[in-house]
Amino acid sequence: AHLLSAPGDTPFLPADLLTRLEAARSRTGAEIAVAASDARTHHAVALWPVALREDLRRALVEEDERKVSAFIARYANVIVEWPAEPYDPFFNVNRPEDLARAEAIARAESRS
Fold first, then answer.
1. Is the pLDDT assigned to residue 110 strictly greater than 90?
2. φ and ψ at 54, to 5 degrees?
């Protein structure tokens, strides 16, 4: 069993996210598949084996590890790249200007 994680402030996740992450994980034998775009790895957007839950708990509680990237680096992982054009599908909304940009993207998408 696996769990797909993604931040709540990322409104344009690709429709093929789960399919491509699972395909890459299966093809390579990696434990974790992680999304990337525009030469940036998005560690919070990943497909994880549920079997790692105790390791994650230990890392958070006992080791005080707070970097998702550091936890992922402990395991075999594969990076799956998405194009960042016409917009980055992992663009996140943190500020008012990000929200304005997201609204413009959504309007453009609804027209296509």
1. no
2. -70, -40
Q: Can you tell me the distance from the alpha carbon of 112 to that of 105, in angstroms, rounded to the nearest whole number?
A: 11
Provide the whole-model pTM: 0.92
> The domain that contains 103 carries what CATH number?
3.90.550.10
Q: How many CB atoms lie within 10 A of CB 10?
A: 18
Give the total number of structural domains in the chain. Answer: 1
Containing structural domain, residue 26:
2-111
3-class SS string, the chain: CEEEECCCCCCCCCCCHHHHHHHHHHHHCCCEEEEEECCEEEEEEEEEEHHHHHHHHHHHHCCCCCCHHHHHCCCCEEEEEECCCCCCCCCCCCCHHHHHHHHHHHHHHHHC
pLDDT digits (tens, 9 = 90+) for 46-105: 999 999 999 999 999 999 999 999 999 999 999 999 999 999 999 999 999 999 999 999
Q: Which amino acid is at 95?
A: R
